[in-house]
């Protein structure tokens, strides 16, 4: 199973379990997250790139993978992604480098899977 399939399967499975608990607060947080990234004054693509940079700086690998997947879906180019990576690493400092490595690996796999 690929990194992308493994992450997406796990995320879907666990989100189903979480949502089935019918916790109003959790559901509202998930809804707020969904609405924050919807098209608005900023395009969805821009919001996802911002979310990715923030996630890298915060060192959340699951968030990084999620935003990388959305960026791939929204047609972010490799050149745009390299700029996001560089800005996130600049802002976050060298502590972000391990997350940059994993993000780079995941992005390469996303590009490979979308070409097939």
UniProtKB/TrEMBL annotation:
One of its GO terms (molecular function) is peroxiredoxin activity. Pfam families: CMD. SUPFAM superfamilies: AhpD-like. The keyword 4Fe-4S does not apply. InterPro entries: AhpD-like (IPR029032), AhpD_core (IPR004675), CMD-like (IPR003779). Coiled coil: none annotated. Keywords: Oxidoreductase, Peroxidase. Residues 27-103 form the Carboxymuconolactone decarboxylase-like domain. PANTHER family: ALKYL HYDROPEROXIDE REDUCTASE AHPD (PTHR33930), BLR3452 PROTEIN (PTHR33930:SF2). This is Alkylhydroperoxidase AhpD family core domain-containing protein. It comes from Pseudarcicella hirudinis.
């Amino acid at each position: 199973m690929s990194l992308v399939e493994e992450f997406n399967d796990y995320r879907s499975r666990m989100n189903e379990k979480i949502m089935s608990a019918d916790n109003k607060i959790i559901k509202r947080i998930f809804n707020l997250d969904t609405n924050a990234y919807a098209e608005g004054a900023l395009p969805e693509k821009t919001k996802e790139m911002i979310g990715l940079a923030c996630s890298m700086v915060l060192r959340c690998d699951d968030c990084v993978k999620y935003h990388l997947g959305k960026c791939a879906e929204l047609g972010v180019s490799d050149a745009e992604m390299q700029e996001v990576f560089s800005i996130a690493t600049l802002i976050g400092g060298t502590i972000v480098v391990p997350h940059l490595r994993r993000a780079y690996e995941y992005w390469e796999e996303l590009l490979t899977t979308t070409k097939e």
